[in-house]
Amino acid sequence: MENCIFCKIANKEIPSNLVYEDEYTVAFNDLNPQAPVHILVIPKAHYASLNETDDKETLAALLNAVKEVTKKLGITDYRTVINTGKAAGQEVFHIHLHILSGRPLNWPPG
Ligand code: AMP
Ligand code: ZN
């Protein structure tokens, strides 16, 4: 989608620190990391949020990519987060899944 920063990253129109790519997804380092490991996994297809798609192939591919990324990095303890909607903290309206690791992660998150 035009003017979507994550579409541009997926299409490699703007640079990012890619850590993983497959047919459906790319994963890259978050620009403003909240933990020593902070990776974003996005679908190559544009969906504004989890509310905007029921494409099961893409949804399964996102979780599969989490497994591939964590396996690749040797991470066994991590948190995955999907912020959906402004009130939940979503700032970029192209679905993305956060992978956070490398420090103690409190629960409940607050
Ligand atoms: P959210 O608040 O869930 O929408 O998360 C958006 C995330 O995207 C934030 O953690 C930002 O730091 C990150 N972000 C925004 N622009 C970029 C970019 N160009 N490259 C990497 N991460 C980005
Ligand atoms: Zn997009």
Features of this protein?
110 residues; alpha+beta; HIT family, subunit A; five-stranded antiparallel beta sheet; 2 helices; globular; binds adenosine monophosphate; binds zinc ion
Q: Largest sheet, if any?
A: 5 strands, antiparallel
What is the alpha-carbon Rg in Å?
Answer: 13 Å
Total strand count, please? 5
| Name of the CATH architecture | 2-Layer Sandwich
Bound molecules: adenosine monophosphate, zinc ion
Indicate the mean pLDDT: 97
CATH superfamily: HIT-like
Range of helix content: 10-25%
The span between the termini is 32 Å
Strand order of the largest sheet: 1-2-3-5-4
Tally of separate domains: 1
Q: Please report the first level of CATH classification, the CATH class.
A: Alpha Beta
In short:
The protein is α+β, with helices and mostly antiparallel strands and 110 residues long.
Give the topology.
Elements: H1 5-10, E1 18-21, E2 25-29, E3 37-43, H2 56-73, E4 79-81, E5 97-101
The chain binds adenosine monophosphate and zinc ion (ZN).
